[in-house]
Amino acid sequence: MKKKLISMLLSATMVAALLSGCGGASGSGSADAKASTAAPAADTAASTAAPAGDAAASTAAPAADGAGASGHTYAIVTKSAGNPYNEREAAGFQEVIEAAGGTCIVQNPESATADAQISVIQSLISQGVDSIAIAANDANALASVCQEAIDAGIKVLTLDSDVNSAVRATFCNQAGVQEVGQALVDAVYDLTGGEGQYAILSATSQATNQNAWIEAMKKIQEGDSKYSKLELVEVAYGDDEPQKSTDQTQALLQNYPDLKVICAPTTVGIAAAAKVLQDQGSAVKLTGLGLPSEMAEYIGADDKHSCPYMFLWNPIDLGKLAGYASIALVDGKMTGAVGDSFEAGDMELSPYTLTELADGSGSEVILGPPFQFNPDNIAEWKEVY
Ligand code: RAM
Description:
By secondary structure, this protein is of the alpha/beta class. It has 13 helices and 15 strands. The chain folds into 2 domains: about 1-175 and about 315-375, Rossmann fold (3-Layer(aba) Sandwich); about 175-310, 3-Layer(aba) Sandwich (Rossmann fold), CATH 3.40.50.
């Protein structure tokens, strides 16, 4: 236990160091890069669903196989700036690229829109980077700029939120869409007592990942009479902006006096909603996808806490996975075809194999299952991410 705590503190320090070296756009040539290359390669305590790992073994694990990364430039484009989830994702990516001797460019667009990403991607194409990993704000609006990048010889992949699968090699998916949808519907079922009104507070209306999870929730609900007494009254959009998410939460409370639960499948939305509900002493309960470090004060089983439990995965590991996938694509060790596999250093499930998307249109690689955070484990995990 002691070892685990030390390891988590190390991990938290590592993330802090990485975040401080990971501004709007950072090349690894800067002094900032030292912070991340000096950090330990990995840490089991920060791994997805394994709070009880033996940390000593993993901190001693070797860094990424750096062959081929040196001399190459790998970019990551997050959904938007100012979102701590995105910062952790980029930190994991940067750690892997720099440990392998590559140059990392982190781009956080000003807002969570396709337009903001298009101009950033166009500039990366002009710079002649070797790969671009994108957390997409829109599946289709980014298609032509992704094609432009591919035509320029750049490897394009996605993480967190996909584009149309025709215009990227593969998608680093944080968890199976069906698994996330099922976890959320079951949480809503549990917290409503199996019947009554609930609302969803999402990110942007175009976000591929949130839309896929919401679609999965609706299908699961429609397909099983167990859920027939649940009523989804509205899907509201807070655009992954704290203020808009706060306003949308207040509007939901006002418009639906019988509302029992809000489900927010976005770390920004859930944190904003948690504060509104807890400050107001509302009886409406909250669940969804949240960062433990932002949600710890709202998680609890009693009436004083707005969120009994929620889910997520390790965003640092998701960034790391995309880093390793980028290196493998640039090295020519994989093309993104279903069945391709790639080494991911000391990550728990390495080597990872690309599997087929549910609709058969392309490949994805899944980080792991969603993990539940509750009053029993939140104190431990809020230190990690
Ligand atoms: C927000 C973003 C991100 C999503 C998480 C759960 O930070 O919308 O894309 O994966 O929430």
